[in-house]
Amino acid sequence: MIRYQVGDVVRTRKPHPCGGDQWEVMRTGIDFRIKCLTCGRVVMLPRPKFEKSVRAIVRSNSDDNQTGK
Ligand SMILES: [Zn+2]
Question: Model confidence over 8-59: pLDDT tens digits?
């Protein structure tokens, strides 16, 4: 099972109406809050729906980003 963390950037199967398909994870838990990186729109959706809509993780915030903060 994939663990998502705040700060991860994911790509969804279905693009946002604005045309962007990359989202930054802003909150995890029962509900996920994600922000469209193209238009800045914030969307909240339940975890199962989020996991189903993610196609790939573009950038993980877990390991390789520690020095960046
Ligand atoms: Zn958008």
Answer: 999 999 999 999 999 999 999 999 999 999 999 999 999 999 999 999 999 9
Q: Would you list the DSSP string of 6-69?
A: TT-EEEESS--TTS--EEEEEE-SSEEEEEETTT--EEEEEHHHHHHHEEEEEE-SSSTTGGG-
Question: How many angstroms does the Cα of residue 35 sit away from the middle of ligand 1?
Answer: 8
Q: How far is the CA of 66 from the centre of ligand 1 (A)?
A: 28
What is the pTM for the complete model shown? 0.83
Distance between Cα 53 and ligand 1 center (Å): 15
